[in-house]
C-alpha cells in the first residue's frame, strides 16, 4: 500500500452545546459573542487520521496529516486544536469575517489543496452542524473523480491500496471497498476524539502553519444560493391526556391520524 498523505478539512462552527439564535435581520443565526469550536464530525476525522498512524493500521504507513480550514482569522484556533490532537501541519485559507462559502466552493478549495499537497486520502466530517448541508465530501469526490465512502463508522486497510469502510444503515451495517486515492466522510460512531493536553497544545505552536487565500488556490467565491429568510421554529403546542385506550383512539381519529 502507498504511504498515506491524509488531508483533513476542519470547520469552525458555533459550539454544539450553544442554542443558536436567529439574528435581527432574519438572514441567519447570531454569531457575534457566541462560543465557537471545531465541528464535531471534523474532530472524528482528525482523531481517525491520528489513530491510523498510531495503530499502524495502514500497511504503507502515514507520511503526512495535513489539516485545512477556510474561514476568518479565528479559524486558526481549530487548526491549532487539530495539530494539538496530532496533525502534522495546517493550512488556513483566509476568508473575510461574515463571508460564507457554499459546499461547492469548499469542494473546489479542497480539490486544489489535494493537488497541491499530493494527498491520496481525504477524511472529513459527513456534515457541519451549522448548515447541515452534507454535500462537500460527495462534491469533492466528484470533482476529483475518486471513489467515496460516506458516514463511516469503521475504516480498515487491506493489501494493494484497498480500504474497507463500514457504515450503519437501517436494519444493519453496510461495508464498501475501494482503492486509494479516495474520500471518506465520518459519522459519530467511528471513534471518540481525544482532548488536547497542555503539552501538545504548546507543541502545536511550533508546527508548520501556512496561510493563503482563495485566489492562491485558483478559486473564486461564486454565490449560487440565496437565503430568503431564517425564522425560529413555531412553539410546540402542549399535549393532552386521555383516560383509556378508547379515548386515545377517539383523539387520534379526531386529529385525522387514523
TrEMBL record:
The keyword Flavoprotein does not apply. It holds the Pfam family ETF. One of its GO terms (biological process) is amino acid catabolic process. Its cofactor is AMP; FAD. Its main location: mitochondrion. The keyword Mitochondrion applies. InterPro entries: ET-Flavoprotein_bsu_CS, ETF_a/b_N, ETF_b, ETF_beta_N, Rossmann-like_a/b/a_fold. GO terms for cellular component: mitochondrial matrix. It is found in: Mitochondrion matrix. PROSITE patterns: ETF_BETA. Residues 26-221 form the Electron transfer flavoprotein alpha/beta-subunit N-terminal domain. Belongs to the ETF beta-subunit/FixA family. Heterodimer of an alpha and a beta subunit. This is Probable electron transfer flavoprotein subunit beta. It comes from Daldinia eschscholtzii.
